[in-house]
Predict the structure.
Amino acid sequence: MDIEQGCYVVIFTNQLGADREGYDAMAARMIELSAEQEGFLGVKSVRDGLEGITVSYWESEAAIANWKANAEHAAAREKGRERWYMEYQLQVCKVERSYGFG
Amino acid sequence: MDIEQGCYVVIFTNQLGADREGYDAMAARMIELSAEQEGFLGVKSVRDGLEGITVSYWESEAAIANWKANAEHAAAREKGRERWYMEYQLQVCKVERSYGFG
């Protein structure tokens, strides 16, 4: 994953509720499906119990809009609000700089 | 935490190595210390075993630079590279839009 200045990132922080049935399969499917989208650069997702953070990286805002418009993704989001998520926050951000170690 | 367009966020994704002694105490201390800094807006951190993601939100790039220059933080980063982290990536990003549910 080569993340550079000018890329975009979606930060999705969330807290699950009590009903987790079907959640893990949906989450795994969304990771898989996002990776098939045009302009996808990479994704990292970590969950500890109810708390989760997923960051996905994209070439452009248009790529994010296309992913948001994906029908299967839209259905998963609706089910997430109805059933799985107690709360979530989402930020769309532009990468100013990026570096790493190791 | 009120995150709006124009705020900045630091995304820190990391993988720990085998030596974890002292890591959890350092990580907790850095969360605490970051929250005392000028321009700090909030932080979320999730770890699942070796994989971690921390996102911290800031009023400005200057606030991020000040936090980076904090001596205790700099010492922790150095120890992190020497001892705890197998690898990490860091992005400084500007928030374009933010919304939530719940």
